[in-house]
Amino acid sequence: MLNTAGPLMNANKVRVQDTFWNRFTELVRDTVIPYQWQALNDEIPDAEPSHAIRNFRIAAGLEEGEFGGFIFQDSDLAKWLEAVGYSLAATPNPALEEMADDIIDVIGKAQHKNGYINTYFTLKEPGKTWTNLYEAHELYCAGHMMEAAVAYYDATGKRKLLDIVCKFADHIETVFGPQHGQIRGYDGHQQIELALVKLSQATGEERYLKLAQFFIDERGADPNFFIEECKQREGYSYWTGKQEPIPTVQQMAYNQADKPVREQDKAMGHSVRAVYMYTAMADLARLTGDQELLAACRRLWENTTKKQIYITGGIGATHHGEAFTFDYDLPNDTVYAETCASIGLIFFAQRMLLAEAKSDYADVMERALYNNVIGSMSQDGKHYFYVNPLEVWPKASDMNPGRRHVKAVRQKWFGCSCCPPNVARLLSSLNSYVYTSSPAENTIYMHLFIGSEANFTLAAGEVAFTQQSSLPWKGEVRLEFTAAPASAITLALRIPSWSRGQAVLTINNVKTEYETLNGYAMVNRQWMPGDTAQWELALDAQLITAHPQIRVNAGKIAIERGPIVYCLEEVDNGTPLAVVSLDYTKGLTSQFDANFLGGAVIVEAEGLADETTTWEEDTPYRPLTLQSETKKVKLKAVPYYLWGNRGEGEMTVWIRKSMA
Amino acid sequence: MLNTAGPLMNANKVRVQDTFWNRFTELVRDTVIPYQWQALNDEIPDAEPSHAIRNFRIAAGLEEGEFGGFIFQDSDLAKWLEAVGYSLAATPNPALEEMADDIIDVIGKAQHKNGYINTYFTLKEPGKTWTNLYEAHELYCAGHMMEAAVAYYDATGKRKLLDIVCKFADHIETVFGPQHGQIRGYDGHQQIELALVKLSQATGEERYLKLAQFFIDERGADPNFFIEECKQREGYSYWTGKQEPIPTVQQMAYNQADKPVREQDKAMGHSVRAVYMYTAMADLARLTGDQELLAACRRLWENTTKKQIYITGGIGATHHGEAFTFDYDLPNDTVYAETCASIGLIFFAQRMLLAEAKSDYADVMERALYNNVIGSMSQDGKHYFYVNPLEVWPKASDMNPGRRHVKAVRQKWFGCSCCPPNVARLLSSLNSYVYTSSPAENTIYMHLFIGSEANFTLAAGEVAFTQQSSLPWKGEVRLEFTAAPASAITLALRIPSWSRGQAVLTINNVKTEYETLNGYAMVNRQWMPGDTAQWELALDAQLITAHPQIRVNAGKIAIERGPIVYCLEEVDNGTPLAVVSLDYTKGLTSQFDANFLGGAVIVEAEGLADETTTWEEDTPYRPLTLQSETKKVKLKAVPYYLWGNRGEGEMTVWIRKSMA
């Protein structure tokens, strides 16, 4: 059943005000955005230069020089601008807005007469536009600029960038399509599809939605566009600089173009491409009522989030192609779990929540957000993980080439720096992920427990309330209404999977029963200004096991507490970390430590440490009978998102299970 | 203390006659050698062509065509010829000898007037000989031909190939050296060093030993030869076909040329290169009395066999560069453990045993031989593993690119087919590894328990005995003397580490006490023809743990029984194999099964299987509290060397440890 009555909430109508999250949004506003501005301007000492702004200035004729960076470098600036838009929406900042306006002027100057924007093709291969969609990311960069324009317009009301990207979109619409002389193709890296949906919604232009649908419908159709395009180029590859064999249809799975999207049922290929595409598919299914497309979205959601997801909300098991591998193959040490992929998964979850309100989507969204995504950024906002491992041995990251992609410490900036600006734009638009509403059904869904002031326009009238949340450390959430219509409306409160159904509702201090639907407590009543609703969720540390098909986690357990996944670090538990095991028969104790990296609940457990002192250096293997007793130890587990903030050391999420 | 009094035993004087090993030597003689002949002639359907013989025929002017295969393809033919030599020594075979003579004629025709042999440079880059030692394997191929020549001469007394390689060696001696106009360098892939030692011993030519020593002494000296050579070529790389950055001294660790060999103390870089070099170093240390070189050998032995070895005797933890990584980094699933590397380790062990008789060398030799090496070959002798994993999930080998080098089934032949002919030459020269002797000290060391007829010439006179061995299934070994001198000699019987010192000596049916030295029972007496010595070794299944620094094996145990390492296979224990654990508090039962792949002892254990039935497909993670009881199961472990002979399936050597 399509929830077509529930459009995307305007982000301006929800304002995050939350003890836990303010720290992140302030960090993004005060540190990350300025820092990334420096990075985009190549001003970070000892970090790889970005070239992104310089490329635009050269293309605009404001500077002399050559194109630098990746072929898709433009997108980094776009993602930064998008983050700026969200940030300005939350907190006006004239100086920042002026910086943004200035660079938007530069973008306008770099735009071709026909609307085309791409500094790589402008500067390096002017005659080659639209000849290598398979590799060149032109539409991907276009999409990011569209998302930036929508965000900036929403925040400031300024149309300049929006007009720039509309002109570009109009140009793209003439170039791509089923008509003779048009390119019947699509981009090698999906992104423009979801951006065109946003642009359509921001401008009211149905044409942009249709163009998004064209790209989605064409993808994977026979004959395969990429293969035909490669033949046209005689196999010339941008990446290798020479002729390569024409790829096979099977190889197109890397770009999710091996078969039509409606026939896909397993998450395959490059994981960021995949989830960006699924996001657009869910948008289109919802907005066009396409049941077949929605069914494909559900299948791909199930496969991604039930068989190919890490407990941290990471996806993509291999760095070879930054890709999915296959069901239940989730190695903790050679893992990829790219930050951008988890962000794309959050987009996908959000769109599925708009299509159908089921708490499973929000459970996964919350898992990815509180663990993989915020864990990718250092506490100072200036260092990032691109790969988010569940097990780290720094020496192996250094000396075993198969683990070299797994960094043991967050890096300053990356040559291919997709992840840091992606984190910035997600965290600065967090308000979009907390609620959805169905105006026609007079229903407000609360998906995330994040303190906020929220306003909704339902059929019955205006609703306003504040949410106060003690998450992630405690399970108490409190709503207070400041405006409500004169008739009954439904407040749908998510019952998170980690509460195991133990969720108590108290309205105006009276404990109240409720009915549940798809994982939400459905509370239908006439609310009055001043009414309060308390939502108390069981939030305690739990031991978690993995599906037996996930072979690497056999005999191991992880610790979760509410939405937070925990890990053991060498700094607390010694080395080698693998010698300790957790006694699952004993309880876990949780305690808030205000001094721990900005304040966090630490979980302690009883454990055993294998005896190591009687091992001689020259004995790699010996009979078990020689092993002495294990000794009892206290284990200290810390939130996964905080790992690696206290120097370099071993880390593990999955811990061997033992019994004293 | 150098055991300079103990030269290499002449292989012709030991004849293997052993229930367990005859099967392998017959397989090599009757199947492997003919099959590899077909392979070298490109006659195996559906396998990658070798080109090796065709290259020689073209170079000899007997055929038209172009060079094919790897730049070091010549070595495959050389290794085959070497195996033929050993096989003919054990079992005359006129037809095989004729085939060998014919191809030796071809090799002679392919030899340049100045002695040079290499079909790649003859056919493809005639003007470029000796310009790319770093990459081109010219001396490596030369070394293999020398080893073949020595083996063939020893077996047949025919000098033709020996004369060919001596002419080649004489040429090399003019090209390489410290004199002006000579190349002060060495090969990118060590091998000629150990071959020149053999050639020196076979011909009595001290010059060849000196040339080996030159190569060893120069290696890693400053300025670095490879770097200087790369500069000369302006960075041109054979492998990439273009100019590459000049490598750094650190990168020379891949070729063990980052520092002089006497300063090396960790096994680094390409593992086959490393152990071939260590072998030559041990030869030279022994033959020249070079204590500094022997000390380096001891250090490198310690590091390789105490910190960088798998329980199966495999070495080399990564497929990136087929290389060592660092101490205790021994992943079971992304492992390399190349067959050739274990064979090279056996060479190294043999040379160390000749330098100083310590049972540790033989323990490691035996471990590599009975597990990694013979496990690399299928029961039909026609399929091989290049990589010898300790944990296999066939689907991951297929679909996770980081594990694609780990094949789940043995392959027919490899484009780079170094391993199969290496196995053939080792197994057909097994007689060289059973004993060493010190004629001056009238001592015979028995290192391996392999049925054989052996003759030794000691200072005191001739000794002859037969060994009957019930290994690896039982621990009873029996010697019967057929000739002995009139004075006392010492029989040194190895006390294998797996016997935990429980080794009972019975002479002429009388239990006899003995003294031990360096892991050997030293039995000094005057033996008479007809005397018997029984050597009873405790040989029972044991549970083994790994050093706590080997993180991947934490909480796991392996099963060993005598020299044989065991594993669990899916065909016997179900899937996922990871759900089972072994109850270490219960006993192991061993039973010989005559019908199991030619007969083998199977080990059974009590185990637990994690409950899998209550897991829904759509639940990747769930609280431990929902987990049902484990159920008791019988585990069936089979010898590692026999894994993968009953279809494709999961396999593991290391098993989770549990307690019911």
Automatic annotation (TrEMBL), chains A, B:
Residues 542-656 form the Non-reducing end beta-L-arabinofuranosidase-like GH127 C-terminal domain. Residues 13-430 form the Non-reducing end beta-L-arabinofuranosidase-like GH127 catalytic domain. Pfam families: Beta-AFase-like_GH127_cat, Glyco_hydro127C, Glyco_hydro127M. GO terms for biological process: carbohydrate metabolic process. It comes from the Bacteria. Residues 443-537 form the Non-reducing end beta-L-arabinofuranosidase-like GH127 middle domain. InterPro entries: 6-hairpin_glycosidase_sf (IPR008928), Beta-AFase-like (IPR049174), Beta-AFase-like_GH127_C (IPR049049), Beta-AFase-like_GH127_cat (IPR012878), Beta-AFase-like_GH127_middle (IPR049046). This is Glycosyl hydrolase. It comes from Paenibacillus pectinilyticus.
